[in-house]
Amino acid sequence: MWLYTVAVLALASLSSACTPSVTAVSGTHAPASFCAGDLIFSDDFNEFDLEKWQHENTLAGGGNWEFQYYNNNRTNSFTNNGLLYIRPSLTEDQFGSAFMTSGRLNIEGGAPADRCTNPQWWGCERTGSPTNILNPIKSARLRTVDSFSFRYGTVEVRAKMPAGDWLWPAIWLMPAFNVYGTWPASGEIDLVESRGNRNMLFNGVHIGTQETGSTLHYGPYPDLNGWERAHWLRRNTAGYDSQFHRYQVIWTPDLIRFSIDDVELGRVMPGNGGFWDFGGFNSNPNIENPWRFGSKMAPFDQKFYIIMNVAVGGTNGFFPDGVTNPTPKPWLNGSPTAATDFWNGRTNWLPTWRLDQNDGQDASLQVDYVRVWAI
Ligand SMILES: *[C@@H]1O[C@H](CO)[C@@H](O)[C@H](O)[C@H]1NC(C)=O
């Protein structure tokens, strides 16, 4: 009887403790049931769990003609002592220098885990030439696209940014199902992005390792993207490469709020006109609002998955042409031979990556944990 009573009381307190959650989840590692406040996805990187983290395998360059080849290789991604490392290396080390300017690289593999993950922008096969060399850097981009996606929640990633000229680390979320159409109509949530240059100024401001940014991308089509109204920067003179920080986002049916180490960076709380009004798209009556049947948070009212990567360079202006760096930027963003120009400047940037010291830790994005809670 006593046991029975205890059991009933325990059950009663359990059920009363469960506040129903507005969070929704999908994926092989999504919990079947949970309450508000529960941890619903986490990785402490005590092992490298590729059931959670799928590697991208592509030459596509992220839509910005970035210079890396994302691959599944323990030179470029691994866990050690409870940390995940994403570490760039030279493509030439694997294929030799002659191959860079003349080889045909086809990365489509036969095994399910070896398939090319992005054929866009010549992403599965490229042929090198002296003016257009093959992607000169190998790196990694990991994603939870099959294992876990979620709508609304709290995310915290404890990470240390890499240092090294022209490195572009990112921890971000992309829409799992593109419910409002292709990018940027279904949104993009960039928790943290930074630049690896230790001493880079633009208009007198340090935009290298001393700066990080958080951004939302959203708009009816690529040329109409309201990111500038949802973009925040933070500075730290010690450099985000010198210590681990906790990068956080709280995402609810009312707001998206970015923080670092519990200090708010910025937030969006759209009114009833939603992101259409917030982005200023309502001024043009000829454009149809893809979110008109969604909630005021649309496109941020659908499920997103997590991505972590180290990109390099690119021609979209993330690395502006006019920067002041100890050694000049080796490519122009308008150059049709940008990757080759970048590679030809390697005597300047490669030493800054310090790949030969300490297992290349300086140039690595290091992640201690990823945690997501229901709200
Ligand atoms: C992994 O990368 C290293 C360094 O580039 C290379 O030597 C090795 O061949 C690669 N492994 C595979 C299986 O491609």
From TrEMBL:
The keyword Metal-binding does not apply. Gene3D superfamilies: 2.60.120.200. Pfam families: Glyco_hydro_16 (PF00722). InterPro entries: Beta-glucanase-like (IPR000757), ConA-like_dom_sf (IPR013320), Glycosyl_Hydrlase_16 (IPR050546). The keyword Signal applies. Residues 1-17 form the signal peptide. One of its GO terms (biological process) is carbohydrate metabolic process. Residues 12-375 form the GH16 domain. Keywords: Signal. One of its GO terms (molecular function) is hydrolase activity, hydrolyzing O-glycosyl compounds. Belongs to the glycosyl hydrolase 16 family. This is Beta-1,3-glucanase. It comes from Ostrinia nubilalis. The lineage of its organism: Eukaryota, Metazoa, Ecdysozoa, Arthropoda, Hexapoda.
